[in-house]
Amino acid sequence: MEMKINSKLIVKLRKEKGWSQQHLSLVSGVSLRTIQRVENEGNTSIETLKSLASAFETDFNSLIFRSPQPNKVLKKTITSFALLFSLATCVFLTSTTTASPGIEVQAEKMIVSQDKRDTTFLGDVIMVIPSTVPFEISTIENHSSKGYQLKITTDGSSFLISDARITRVETGLEVRAAEVQASNATE
Fold first, then answer.
1. Domain HTH cro/C1-type: where (predicted)?
2. 105 and 25 in one domain?
3. C-alpha closest to that of 144 among 112, 110, 120
4. If we measure between CA atoms, which residue out of 126, 128, 120 comes closest to residue 102?
5. Helix 32-41 to helix 7-16 angle, to the nearest 10 degrees?
6. What is the pLDDT of residue 177?
7. Domain boundary among 13, 45, 63
8. What pLDDT does residue 96 have?
């Protein structure tokens, strides 16, 4: 039965003792060719392993190559995946943008247009407009094709909002909606 052993450790132990491969062969009773194969390939039989361990006056288990245990690798992989998934979830659950200085928008999902002028926020959108930011609110009477009913305009941005619930909060105005489309340029 072939076993995988730590060939680097064999070479290290041999050199620490100042032995050549030939001398190790004589001390251990293992052929020179086998010593060379062990040091180059790291494969050996249990008998050769026991002979080498005896020559180095060490436990043969210390010479066996130990690959990372599958459970530890699996645990690290799962932990890394869970951490990455948690981070990605946090980003999506609290996707935040400041379309206009001071205005913060949070949503479950955020879609940015290809030209990067429009951002659509979907799912439990919360938009906070600080009391220090001037804005104008108007209704959209014709209901655009996407179902927006409200438009909020600031100096540099406009927000089209569907299913809005507006509440005055301590810091300003809070708008909760199903969907908000933010545009960098006012329309």
1. 10-63
2. no
3. 120
4. 128
5. 120
6. 92
7. 63
8. 46
Q: Is 83 part of any domain?
A: no
Whole-number Å distance between alpha carbons of 70 and 95: 36
Domain of 132, in residue numbers: 95-183
Q: What is the DSSP letter of 150?
A: E
pLDDT at position 20: 93
Over the chain (187 residues), the average pLDDT of each successive run of 10 is 84 92 92 92 88 88 72 74 68 50 84 85 90 87 73 86 90 91 70
List the beta bridge partners of residue 127.
105, 175
* Amino acid letter, residue 127: M
Full-model pTM:
0.46
CA–CA dist 22, 34 (Å, integer): 11
Q: Which amino acid is at 155?
A: D
Q: Which two tokens stand for residue 98?
A: 């400041």
